Amino acid sequence: MNRSTIRITAGVGALATAAAIIATLTASAPPQGARADILITGGTVITMDSTRRILEDGAVAIAGDRIVAVGSTAELRARFRAGQEIDARRKIVMPGLIDGHGHAGHGLLKTLGTDIGQWNSAAERMYARGSTPDFWRAEGQLAALERLQFGVTTSVTLFGGGSDVYRTDDIRYGDAYMEAVRRVGVRWFLAVGPARGPFPRTFTDWTGGSPRDNPVTFEQQMSVSDALIRKWHNTENGRLKMAVVFPTSNPSESLSVAALAERKAQARAARDLSKQRGVFFVQDGHTRGTVKFAHEQLNLLGPDAIFSHATELTEEEIRLVASTGTRISHNPSAIFSIRGRNPTTELIDAGAIVMLGSDGPAPDRSYDMFRHMFQATRYHRFHFRDPNVLPAGKVLEMATVDAARALGMEKEIGSLEPGKKADVILVDWFKPHMVPMNMPVYRLVYFAEGTDVATVIVDGRILMRDRRLLTVNQDEILNLAQAEADAAIRRAGLESLTAMPEGFWGRTRLGR
Questions:
Q1: How far apart are alpha carbons 448 and 406 in whole angstroms?
Q2: Pair 455, 425: CB distance under 8 Å
Q3: What's the CA angle centered on 394, arms 393 and 400, to 5 degrees?
Q4: For the chain, what is the radius of gyration of the CA atoms?
Q5: Does the pTM exceed 0.85?
Q6: Beta pairing class for 80-87 and 34-46
Q7: Domains, the chain
Q8: What mean pLDDT comes out for the span 74-79?
Q9: Per-residue pLDDT for 5 more than 90?
Q10: Contact predicate 309/347, CB 8 Å
Q11: CA distances to 74, 93, 355, 448 from 90, in Å
């Protein structure tokens, strides 16, 4: 029955009857509802909110770049009219994962020289002598694509690595890298800064196809880093952010009085830049003694500082980290974690904020944060000989809500809650290694792989749906990465490092 079919005849009684019919029809009609751009329905929703709700047959409504509601499928379907609906049956719906530490460039140097103790020197030579803007563009796309396909929606990345070589001799390299990341569509922090001294450092410019070696001063690298920060920080609706990186100082280094004074002055200059621009200050490779030195000699600690690895810390250093609010990125799959243990549980129990990181995909890892979550559980349980250490729930927190707090973005990302950014992933758990579909947090931490991620949304934009990329062409990115890696290896003269080392087959230890 429709209002247009009601015939109103003369008389008050007839008018009253018609009014009653209209009122009944209006009351029973479905509400128009609020508008949502995307409605995810029918999934197992792991919210990671303050009560850690897990919703069966749950739903998430997204409008623009924000989550507007989280609840049951029935409830949200009644409340919202959606531009498109994503069927999440047999999927886990959860916040995008956060990678707290990685390195730009590593994607094109996987395993190069690693078994003969030459990976760090190879990386140093590649970044300073063999790389071009096209190299960084190719690696930026590759890194962003790998993280995207593994459900890593936010990352912290140092612009280089090896023995602290950062390609900030010219703005062209950082521009190429950030443009590549921008194109893929994920959320990114890029840390830029000066290389490890002494200065000047030599960088090779391949413009025109012929190498030209340039001596670069500390001041030049700082100037380029500042320019990159001013150009790229908080762009793309806040999705792209910058940070300052400075090499970690070890008090056991043998430095002259003058060299030590110069190192201190440079460290303070880099720290001052981070504060002036309101960005994070990042250091790589902290270990026993370096945190105390950074605090007492350099005044580097604070809630806007991220220290990676942080292995074999003393009890005093653990207290320093917690009391200053300094953030720690623990990388359980890194070579650094073979040489020394990050006291993750002790730091957390002391009140420090610890997030998980991949340490990048080289020499022997990937950006798969599911892999690193699992590794974290085994790493610390073996240390304590205790299977109750680091429950699966805590490890998942370290890759979501804890990491969001570490990055000062707890009001924006890390959980599925109304008002937060719509960074959402769907994980397919109707697979042999995931079924039975119960105990979903356990499935994620112990069994899931990055390739189980089916759909990725960042800032309310669908970047991948049912494993189909929507913003970039995978073959194009992979072909470019292969070509640029081959060319860079030739430019840097590192072809010999692709060979298998002695002792690779048939022995229990490499080498002679």
A1: 24
A2: yes
A3: 90
A4: 26
A5: yes
A6: parallel
A7: 34-89 (2.30.40.10), 96-415 (3.20.20.140)
A8: 98
A9: no
A10: no
A11: 17, 10, 29, 14
